[in-house]
Amino acid sequence: xxxxxxxxxxxxxxxxxxxxxxxxxxxxxxxxxxxxxxxxxxxxxxxxxxxxxxxxxxxxxxxxxxxxxxxxxxxxxxxxxxxxxxxxxxxxxxxxxxxxxxxxxxxxxxxxxxxxxxxxxxxxxxxxxxxxxxxxxxxxxxxxxxxxxxxxxxxxxxxxxxxxxxxxxxxxxxxxxxxxxxxxxxxxxxxxxxxxxxxxxxxxxxxxxxxxxxxxxxxxxxxxxxxxxxxxxxxxxxxxxxxxxxxxxxxxxxxxxxxxxxxxxxxxxxxxxxxxxxxxxxxxxxxxxxxxxxxxxxxxxxxxxxxxxxxxxxxxxxxxxxxxxxxxxxxxxxxxxxxxxx
Length: 342
Fold this sequence. Notes:
By secondary structure, the protein is α/β, with parallel strands linked by helices. It has two domains: 3-95, 3-Layer(aba) Sandwich (Udp-n-acetylmuramoylalanyl-d-glutamate--2,6- Diaminopimelate Ligase, Chain: A, domain 1), CATH 3.40.1390; 100-314, UDP N-Acetylglucosamine Acyltransferase, domain 1. It is 16% helix and 29% strand. The strands form six sheets. Strands 8-10-13-16-19-24-27-30-33-36-38-39 form a twelve-stranded mixed β-sheet. β38 (302-305) and β39 (308-310) form a beta hairpin.
C-alpha cells in the first residue's frame, strides 16, 4: 500500500516542502529511515538525524527550519507527534477495511449481518447471532449462539466468543482471547469430589473496550460478568465469573481477578497483580505491579506489595526490610553487651 506526499499532506492538512509525488509504503524511526519510508520529527534531540535520514518523507512541526541541506521531503504540520498518530489511525483503518464473506466459513441461517461486515475464512457464526455495521471478524473466529456484536467492532483471528455474550460498539478483541468461557465453579459433594456448578450467565463488553491477546473473561454463574465502557485489558489477563470492571479502568498483563470482585472507574492496575474474590475496589485506585489485593480498597488509594500496603508505607517498610540483616546483627551485639554487663 503506497501513499504520496500529496495524499499524506491532504490527510494531515499539512504543507509540503520537497517532492509532492514521492511515495512511501512503510514506516520507520528517523534514525533508521530508508528509501520509501515515512517518519516524523517531534523530539528536538532527534533533530540531527533529519540531515542523514534516508526516509522519503518526514513529518515535522511548522516551526522547523533546516539549518543544513536535507534529502527527505517534509510535511509541515502544527504538531508532528499528533499528526503521526493520526496517520497511524488512518493507516490501520485502511488496512482493516475489509468487507464480504470469505470461504470456507459457516454462518447460521438465523444469523444476521450487513454488507459492510467482514467475515474471514474458517469462521463459525452460530444461531441467532447479530452482527452490526462495519464489524470485522477475522479468520478462525468462533461466535457462539445468540451473541450480539455492535458497530465497528473488530475481532481478530482465533478469538472465541461463547454463546449469549454481548459485545458493544467500537470494541477490539485480539487473537486468542476467549469471551464467555465457563467460570471456575465447583462444589464438593459427600464423597469429597468436586461437582461442576452450571455457569448460566454471560459476559457483557460495553462500548470501546479493548481485550488483549490471550485474555480470558469467564461468563457469570448467574447474571453477567460486566466490563464497562472504555476499559482496556492487556494480554493474558484472567477475569473470573461475575467480576465487574468500571469505566476507563486499565489493567496490565498477567493480572488475575477472582470471582465476584467489583473494580471501580479510572483504576490503573499493573502487571501480575492478584486480586481475591468478593471484594470491592474503589474508583481511581492505582495498584503497582506484582501486588496482592486481599481486602476492600477505598477510592484514590495507591498500593504496592503482597499483601498490598499503601504505596508510602510499602516504601518505608522496604527500606527496613533490605537492611534487616544489619538490624539483626546490631540487635545481637546489643544483647551480648547487655548479657555481659548483667
